[in-house]
Structures are given as C-alpha cells and as structure tokens.
Backbone:
C-alpha cells in the first residue's frame, strides 16, 4: 500500500470511510459504498443517513479506507489459479453408487 | 465503492503497452468488469473521471432547481415527496463522487473543477423552475430522460460506476412516477392548473430532448466509449426511445408537446419529431442559459459558507485523537 | 371540551415539528458538506412526518373537518402555536445546530413520556417520534461539541448562536391551562416537569463544547399563545403561497 498515502493524502476532504451493512440479521455485513467524515462517529451516523434511508440495514460497520489492505491484481494468477486444480475439494468430484442414501 | 487507496499511481505516460491494451479490450469484450486496481488505458481512466464527475455534478446542481420549491410545495404530502427526492439527488451525487474517487481523483479536486468552471454538469439544470408545474415536469421529463441514459450505465464496463448506477436506478424509480403524478393532477385540475402544466411541458420538452446530447453525427466520443462499453446506445437511439415513451404519456393526460411536426410513423413504429435547435443547446452549454450564473453562484456560496464547518470538524477530530493518545500514554 | 384541549395540544406539538422541519428544508442543497446535507434532509423529513400525524390528530379532535393541509396552510400567524425557538431563522450552520440541539434536548425528554399518554393517537405518534428524537439529539449535540471545541471561528459562531437563541429556550417549559388540564388527565406531559431533565442534557454538552449560556438574557415567549416573532409571517408567506394563490385546488 505504498502508493496509498500519495493517492489519498488529500488534506482538504474529510477522511474516506468504507461502509459495510448487514441487511438482515443472520447475514454478513456487505460493502455498500463509501463516504467522507471527520471522525468514526460521524462516519457511522452519516452511513446511516446515506445508506439506510430505505430500511436497507440492521447493523453498520465503517472502516477508514486507508486501513484496508488489498491483493494486487497482478498477483491474481499466483494467488487464485492454484486452487482451480484442486477439484477433489468439491463434493461433486466423488463417484458414488447411485442408490446410496443419506450422503 | 472501492477505496481510492487501492489504485496504483498512474504510470508515466509513455506509449501504452499494446499487449496490455489488447488484454484490456478482450476483457471488456468478454463483458468482464474493470475494477479500480486493474490496469486500464489512461484515456479510459480520464474519460471515466470526466463522465462520472460530470454525472455527480449534475446530481448536485440538480438539487437547486427542485430545491427552489421545497419551501413552497402546495401540500405536506408533496413537500415530503420533494424533500425525499432532492435528498436522493444528493445521495446519488455522493455515490458517483465516490465511484470517481476510485479512479484516483479526490472529491475536493472534482468540486474545484466544478466551481472554477472547468467541469460541466447537465445543461438541463440551467433552466428555471418558475411554477409548481415545473416540479412535475422535471420529474416526468428530466428524470425520465435521465433514466433512459442511466439504465444502460448499470452494465458499464467500469465496476464501481456500474454498481453506483444500479443503486441509483433502484432509488430513482419513484422520481419519474412522482413527477408524472404531480403533473397529471394539474392537467386534470382547474383551468389555471392545466395552463401551468401545459406551460411547463412547453418549456421543458425541447431541453429534455437535448439532454441526450448532440446527434450521433456530431458526437465525437461515441465510437470509443461504445467500444469500451462505457456507453451502450447512441444519443439518437436513446432520444428516440424517450420520445416514443413520452408522447403517449403526454396525450393520455391531455397535454401536447410543443412540436408541430410530431407524428406517429406506422412504418418504423416510432414518433417522428422536429429539428432540435442546437444553437440554444450550445448557448446554454457556453454558459448563457437562463440560470447558469445563479446555479454556480449557489454552489460556490454553499461551498464557501461550509468551509469553516468542515474545518471545525477536522480540528475537533484531531483534538479528540490527541487527547486519547495522551490518555493512553499516561496509563 | 376535552377534545378541544387535546386538539390545541396536538396542534402545538405539530406546529413545532412543522416549522422546524420547514427551516431545515431551507438548507437542502446548500449544506456545508454533501453528507451533512443528506442528514439535514433526514431530520427535516422526520419532523415533517411527525407534523403530519399531529396535525391530522388535531384536526380530528377539533371536529371541524380540517385535515393536515387545511391546518398547515389555512391558518395565519395568530393561530400558530409553535415555540418561538423553532421559527428563528437558520443563520449560519452553528445557529441552526444550536437551535436544533436546544429543541432536540427537549423533544427527547418529551416523547418517551408522552408515549404513555392515555390518548392513544398521541401515544402512538410519541412512540415513533421518541426514536427519531433520540437520534436527532445525538447528532445535534455532536455538532455543538465539534463547533464549540473546533476552531476559534467555529467556537465564536457557536457561542453567538447560543447567545442569540438561549432566551427562547425558557418558553419550552412554560405551561398554561391547556397543558395543566391535560397533564392532570394523563394525556399531556407537563412541560415544567421536563426542565431539569433538559438541563441535565444540555449542560454537559455545553461544557464539553466550552460554551456558556449568556447571563441575564431573559426569556422570550408568546409562541404558544400566537404572539410570534416577525420571522413567522415571512415563513408562512412562502410556505402557504400556493394554497393562498389557488384556493381549493388539489395538488
């Protein structure tokens, strides 16, 4: 994330926060957007005002955008290709008699 | 939206790698989304920054003509609807600024460009809302035209823009309906109300058709934007679609668009409409529309008046943080 | 008789919400930052929703066939019974937020108590409004602290907003025969009973913000009896224009 400071080191905007919302109990929080706020409390409140106006949420997380570490798209092959060949991790890989039950 | 922090610094602008370009185009051709930290041609990035920020500015400036009637809405129900709608425009501006920020530009920079006159916004918002009927006309025609433009953008090749547009289109679905409902009420009302409604249609019809931009023949960026799937239909295709949808809606409530050449063409199945006066369009674009100066003055004033508020919140956040740090150190 | 009293009481609360909502709606599109603009519109919408329910309730209790719009758009200054506080102009963002905080600190104490009213309709509105007020006061208090404890300029602006508006706060707790009679029946909340709770909310926030109420500022009152400041007439001239220009039309 070395470029980060340079790219978002903008003193004039309030810091950027990423917003994650749980739509209903039992579900994961899901990324739904971002906003600017002076502090985390303000970010939470404005996330409520901006992103749950139509009853979209039951819980909110806000995270300062510069605290997110992301994988590099250039590493995509190295990171994700090797998993593609491990088909034995999936249940459909296995050959079972047709009439076996409860499996 | 993804954080702007995920973007890599733009490579110095040498000739772009032909192989990267080919891979980029292949990805788009496969209908795969481009995400913020993927490689992209500099022109693609700049085109998107220009288009998304213009779109965001349009939402924000667009709050003004409708906001003009927030304090004068004729019933409490209409007032609540209009408040919710104008607020939505603010939200949409926010989503779009955030989408543009993923391309490595700050909101402050985009706002500067707008306030200094270096960035554009939709010319439609340089027209005045002089009667209540204009609120109906704006919802029905302006939002109607905007939706025609926006629905294809939900499939735009740039992920953050497409996702913002999906949210926007979902939220906007009531905007056009409330406008049509408001103007229908006038069209069926007293003679004074009906006059107001027809007058609003007379004034908003042609500017709404101009919202789709210049004719395809005069639209310099269309080809490339279509190839990059930033744009899916041409200006003229969308304009025709809008006219086809809107003429029957007007006639249904007893209003008539101000175009003597308007007639239904059985053969093509489309409504034929008259020549658009592009000199007017260009005049408004050049800053000489009825409200260009007022709109920019209002935005500059809000921004300037808000400066001390933004600074106060920043200053307080810093104080709070250093107090917490001191308290932690003392422990 | 009880109905006329309840109507008058519902109208007071409804007028407070209506006028304050209107003031906040003047900000929309002109806020100090996009996120705050959206937040101001939310508060304005909450208050407008409360106003509509309360005016409808007042109209029913009054029994003269006046609906929310007839009450909102058909009365002149003398028949409006909102607090003077809520009709005061927006001024700068500091003045707006101080006004909001002084009002919210009252509303958040009023609504939960009124939700136990023996009048079911009022209790219903109050239950909904209590949740909204709890959020509003958190937000306006946070802004009072941010501005009071922000920059030199924001501190000065917040203090001058407080100096200007503090005299209007006293009216909140003035009770007349309407509230007294209804409070006895368990229908209304006696405003005087809220004063110390209000103080307990306001004082720590002002202290954290480094702001002090002006000394010897007096109390400005009269709104409940229709004796308003000059500002309300101008507000109504704008707000009621359409219904006055086109009487009887439907929108």
Residues:
């Amino acid at each position: 994330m070395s470029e980060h400071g340079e790219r978002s080191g903008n003193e004039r905007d309030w810091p950027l926060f990423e917003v994650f919302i749980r739509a209903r109990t039992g579900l994961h929080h899901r990324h739904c957007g971002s906003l600017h706020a002076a502090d985390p409390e303000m970010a939470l409140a404005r996330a409520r005002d901006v992103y749950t106006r139509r009853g979209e949420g039951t819980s909110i997380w806000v995270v300062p955008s510069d605290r997110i570490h992301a994988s590099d798209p250039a590493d995509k092959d190295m990171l994700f290709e090797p998993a593609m060949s491990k088909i034995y991790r999936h249940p459909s890989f296995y050959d079972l008699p047709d009439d076996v039950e409860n499996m | 939206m993804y954080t702007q922090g995920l973007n890599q610094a733009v490579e110095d602008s040498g000739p772009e790698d032909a192989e990267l370009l080919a891979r980029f185009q292949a990805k788009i051709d496969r209908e795969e989304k481009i995400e913020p930290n993927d490689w992209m041609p500099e022109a693609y990035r700049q085109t998107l920054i220009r288009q998304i920020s213009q779109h965001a500015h349009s939402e924000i400036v667009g709050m003004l003509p409708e906001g003009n009637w927030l304090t004068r809405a004729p019933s409490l129900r209409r007032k609540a609807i209009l408040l919710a709608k104008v607020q939505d425009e603010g939200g949409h501006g926010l989503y779009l600024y955030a989408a543009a920020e993923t391309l490595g530009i700050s909101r402050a920079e985009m706002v500067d460009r707008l306030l200094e006159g270096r960035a554009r916004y939709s010319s439609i918002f340089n027209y005045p809302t002089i009667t209540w009927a204009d609120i109906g006309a704006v919802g029905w025609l302006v939002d109607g035209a905007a939706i025609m433009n926006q629905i294809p953008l939900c499939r735009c090749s740039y992920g953050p823009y497409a996702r913002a547009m999906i949210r926007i289109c979902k939220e906007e679905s009531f905007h056009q309906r409330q406008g049509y409902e408001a103007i229908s009420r006038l069209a069926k009302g007293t003679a004074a109300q009906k006059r107001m409604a027809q007058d609003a249609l007379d004034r908003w019809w042609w500017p709404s058709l101009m919202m789709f931009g210049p004719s395809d023949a005069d639209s310099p960026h269309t080809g490339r934007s279509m190839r990059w799937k930033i744009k899916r239909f041409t200006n003229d295709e969308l304009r025709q679609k809008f006219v086809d949808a809107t003429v029957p809606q007007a006639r249904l409530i007893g209003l008539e668009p101000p175009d003597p050449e308007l007639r239904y063409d059985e053969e093509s199945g489309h409504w034929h409409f008259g020549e658009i006066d592009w000199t007017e369009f260009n005049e408004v674009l050049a800053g000489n529309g009825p409200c260009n100066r007022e709109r920019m003055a209002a935005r500059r004033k809000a921004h300037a008046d808000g400066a001390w508020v933004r600074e106060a919140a920043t200053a307080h956040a810093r104080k709070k943080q250093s107090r917490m740090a001191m308290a932690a150190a003392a422990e | 008789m009880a109905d006329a009293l309840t109507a008058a009481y519902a109208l007071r609360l409804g007028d407070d919400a209506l006028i304050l909502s209107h003031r906040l709606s003047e900000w929309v599109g002109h806020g100090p930052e996009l996120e705050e603009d959206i937040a101001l519109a939310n508060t304005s919408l909450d208050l407008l929703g409360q106003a509509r329910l309360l005016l409808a309730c007042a109209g029913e209790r009054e029994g003269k066939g006046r609906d929310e719009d007839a009450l909102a758009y058909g009365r002149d200054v003398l028949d409006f019974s909102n607090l003077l506080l809520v009709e005061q102009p927006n001024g700068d963002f500091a003045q707006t937020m101080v006004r909001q905080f002084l009002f919210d600190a009252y509303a958040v104490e009023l609504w939960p108590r009124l939700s136990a009213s023996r009048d079911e309709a009022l209790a219903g509105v109050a239950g909904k409004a209590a949740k909204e007020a709890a959020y509003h006061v958190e937000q306006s208090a946070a802004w009072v602290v941010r501005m009071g404890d922000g920059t030199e300029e924001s501190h000065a602006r917040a203090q001058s907003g407080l100096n200007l508006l503090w005299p209007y706060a006293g009216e909140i707790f003035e009770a007349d025969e309407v509230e007294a009679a209804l409070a006895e029946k368990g229908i209304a909340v006696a405003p005087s009973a809220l004063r110390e709770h209000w103080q307990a909310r306001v004082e720590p926030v002002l202290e954290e913000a480094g702001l002090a109420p002006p000394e010897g500022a007096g109390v400005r009152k009269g709104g409940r009896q229709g004796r308003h400041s000059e500002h309300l007439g101008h507000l109504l001239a704008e707000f009621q224009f359409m219904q006055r220009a086109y009487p009887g039309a439907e929108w």
Observations:
- Chain B is about 65% helix and 0% strand.
- The longest helix of chain B spans residues 292-330.
- The interface with chain A takes residues 1-9, 35, 37-39, 87-88, 91, 94-95, 98, 101, 104, 106-109, 164, 167, 171, 310, 313-314, 316-317, 320-321 of chain B (CB under 8 Å).
